[in-house]
Amino acid sequence: MLGVVVVAGLCAVPPAAQAEQVRPGGRSVDFTGGWQFALVNTNGDDAPQPGEHDPAWRDTRLPHDWSIGLDPVEGPHTGAGTGFLPGGLGWYRKAFTLPSRLAGKKLSIEFDGVYMDSDVYLNGVLLGRHPYGYTGFAYDLDARTDGTPNVLAVKVRNQVPSSRWYSGSGIYRDVRLVMTEPAHVTRHGVQVTTPELATTIKSGFATLRVATTAVSETATQAEIVSTVRDPRGRIVGRATTRAALAAAPSTTSTDIRIAGPALWSVDRPDLYTVDSEIRVHGRVVDTVSTRTGIRYFAFDPDNGFSLNGVETKLKGVNLHHDLGALGSAVSSDAVVRQLRIMKSMGVNAVRTSHNPPSPQFIRACEELGILLQVEAFDTWRSPKVKYDYGRFFDANSSADLREMVHAAKNSPSVVMWSIGNEIPDSSSAAGPPIARRLIDDVRSVDTTRPIVMGSDRYRRVPAIGSPQDQILRMLDGLGLNYNNASSIDELHTRYPDKFFFEAESSSSTSTRGYYQDPDQLNTGENHTPGRRNTSSYDNNLETWTYSGEYGLKKDRDRKWFAGQFLWTGIDYIGEPTPYNVFPVKSSFFGAVDTAGFQKDFYHLFRSQWSSEPMVHLLPMDWTGHRPGEPVSVWAYSNADTVELYLNGKSLGERRFDEKTTVSGSKYLETTEATGDDKNVVTGPYPGSYTSPNGSAGKLHLTWSVPFQPGWLVAVAKRGGVEVARDEVRTAGEPHAIRLTPDRRVTKADDRSLAFVTAEVVDRAGVVVPDADDLISFQVRGGGLAGLDNGRQESAENYQASSRTAFNGKALAIVRSGQTSPVITVTARAPGLRTATTLIAAIGGRPGPVRDTADPAPVPAPAPAADASYSGAADTIPAAMLDGDASTYWSNYYLKRATGLLPAVSRAHATDWVSLPVPEGGPAGSVQASFRTDASHALPASIAVSYWNGRTFVPVRDAKVEWPDGQPASITFTPVRSDRIRLDLTSSAPGTAQGFLAVSEATVGR
């Protein structure tokens, strides 16, 4: 779209001194530096570009996400689904000059991604609009080459909600200036395929078919030379073809035989490079390098997925595109870190939910050996949220889908294209025609990979002729979202020519280091402010979800099932299911939290997906228990036997049985009823998931251990020989901060990142599992790119310079500078020993060393009412203090039934509430009004303690009186404290009648 617009300040050119002088050094120039940014508003209202001298302009380097630097807030333009982080409207501008030698060249600007709804201008002329935030785009530039500054301006508008999760806002992917001769390869103009590789490899060779699309502004004869280099950079093939080039693009293909090719695989991701040259009259006028891999794969409806002829389960995860504290601003270092963590879990595949990924992400998957399902859309025509892509779908989806395929068509990682996720239109009459168009769009670019979609609308076999039936018959395969075992068996029977896999599996939620009700298969949520967590025993499930163990077993037992993509590999910002309240702003689904710290869920999947011997104990906290309290201890392991020791004394061995699937695969599992599938009504284990071989069991081993402080050690054995061990220790008082960088050397390029873990430890170096100290970070020789701690409930700014530890840990993301050979990271917290770590930075240039400030700690808030557990959002501790007898704190919860599990409502044996002491103390009494009804009963007993600055200590001479019809009166020897705690024991634990409720409570002298 071209046109001249009149916008205030749009044509203003900053002084020439501010313009970047472009120095061509190849086909393209990195265009991420030298930008300015102005955030006009956070509500998304349209607005003109600020004037040239407006103080809103700030120097900015791309990639950039303006939303991640804002404070999470409640308001009309934010919500839990997008992490309470605002969007808005922002303007970017960049002034640059071009040398005269570029006159007559073909110039274009390429954006890898702008979120979203962008308008791009050059010198006041609108180049075009691009609504979709996840696809790349390019515009030709009619730029000045006489030394006069050019101004590129980009308007970006993110009206929240534009997505169901956190999207980020701005030019969040790379930008480059492309300079070619009039005769050149077009954008995405090289396509490399390996026809008949499954056959030719048996004869020891591969055929690389290189299709090159090129143009010339004036008709000319050209040679196209294609050169293939192997993973070591050696030339292993070359071919030359002739082409008549004109203004209209034309494609020329050639076949190159590669002898003894190294096949790309998840274990050996060998990559080849194809250099495509355009030669006119013997002169090279353009060169494009394309990276690819030689591999073949198949999805077989009866035998599942195979790679290079080897049957391979897809051990996959879903990943959204945010990078935790960095937001959506893409960083190769952050992407590689995330994927390496996933790979260490045993992951071999990723689904890019629910949008096309960045080039950096694709590149990292190629290098690490990770398979990809690349997905196009979360919505078609019918929107899911007010401002999403549905507004633009009809006009733009074909172009965006083709762009997605072009951008990744040469990647050996990509094995599937997905045309959508959980699409409402797929159930309507409009769905099949849209699906047909999208499928044709994909195949117009690539015919070598299957086309699928992810759907939650096939939990029953669709009626013949229904929209779902029509669409499935068009697709090559289908990704199922949260189907139970019987439903996938029924689909396999009805559609024997289609392959199936789980596009989203499990969705069990958890918080790192939080444990609740291990004896229950499903449990309620804690709604106490500051304690809004979910259990790490794989037992917090929504109505549509199921446990990780169930999903692993279901997948394992079916050879024809291609595999699964866990929802999700890593927590992401937004969609904080099961909570919808400020400041809970990130998801609970991940096996790893947003900081990259492993949860227990990570180790469950590692035990099933990795062959490296391992064992993992949970709970990871062997500190926060009372002496003698029975603790349910689990062990995840891929060894057949685990022996548990407490302070050197054996607590006995537990053993998995070795079993065999009906297709002949060996696996380890206990043999016992599991109670995890109420739909199973026959066989030896009614109510439990039962394998086709007739067996049932668990993927973990269990002990009940009376707590004693000390060392708890798990020793895993194979054939009686130790192969792995894990231990947890009781922590003492917090003493120091320990810093551990993920690398000791980085590049001094002002963009490379190091990830520094901060841990609060006791004098023996044991991480204090409940430490929440406020840690301030200072960086010399670089800068802070972001801070995180993995906590889902947090209003802290990701780009502040201090962060509280969460369950003993925090993360500092450190960006290198350009001038200092050493980056020094220092972490401080009141009362703790300071820590410092050094990272070498190589390749910099001399100059002043950058130093970030070390801020003063933020004072802790005054104590308020608190509770160990609140069963609902409207029965939180504050209800005890509001003076309204009709409101109350309660630990009552009702967890709704899921597709596999019944509803549950079981009173805890104990819970506690704490109350603030009025200023001027001391405290010597408590008046508490308890509520009784069909669900709530009076406590069987009450114990009283006070906060001594570090822990709760029992009071002396506590007496409890229950006057008829009056509040309970509790007296004790007066203490000086700011908090009094009541530990309440249920009179009917484990029942639906033993819950506790307090409507009013006050502390007196």
From TrEMBL:
Residues 88-179 form the Glycosyl hydrolases family 2 sugar binding domain. Residues 509-538, 843-867 are annotated as: Disordered. Residues 193-295 form the Glycoside hydrolase family 2 immunoglobulin-like beta-sandwich domain. Residues 628-724 form the DUF4982 domain. One of its GO terms (molecular function) is hydrolase activity. InterPro entries: Beta-gal/glucu_dom_sf, DUF4982, Galactose-bd-like_sf, GH, GH2_Domain-Containing, Glyco_hydro2_dom5, Glyco_hydro_2, Glyco_hydro_2_cat. Keywords: Glycosidase, Hydrolase. Pfam families: DUF4982, Glyco_hydro2_C5, Glyco_hydro_2, Glyco_hydro_2_C, Glyco_hydro_2_N. The keyword Hydrolase applies. Gene3D superfamilies: Galactose-binding domain-like, Glycosidases, Immunoglobulins. Residues 519-538 have a biased composition (Polar residues). The keyword Membrane does not apply. Residues 303-459 form the Glycoside hydrolase family 2 catalytic domain. Residues 737-836 form the Glycoside hydrolase family domain. Belongs to the glycosyl hydrolase 2 family. This is Glycoside hydrolase family 2 TIM barrel-domain containing protein. It comes from Lentzea sokolovensis.
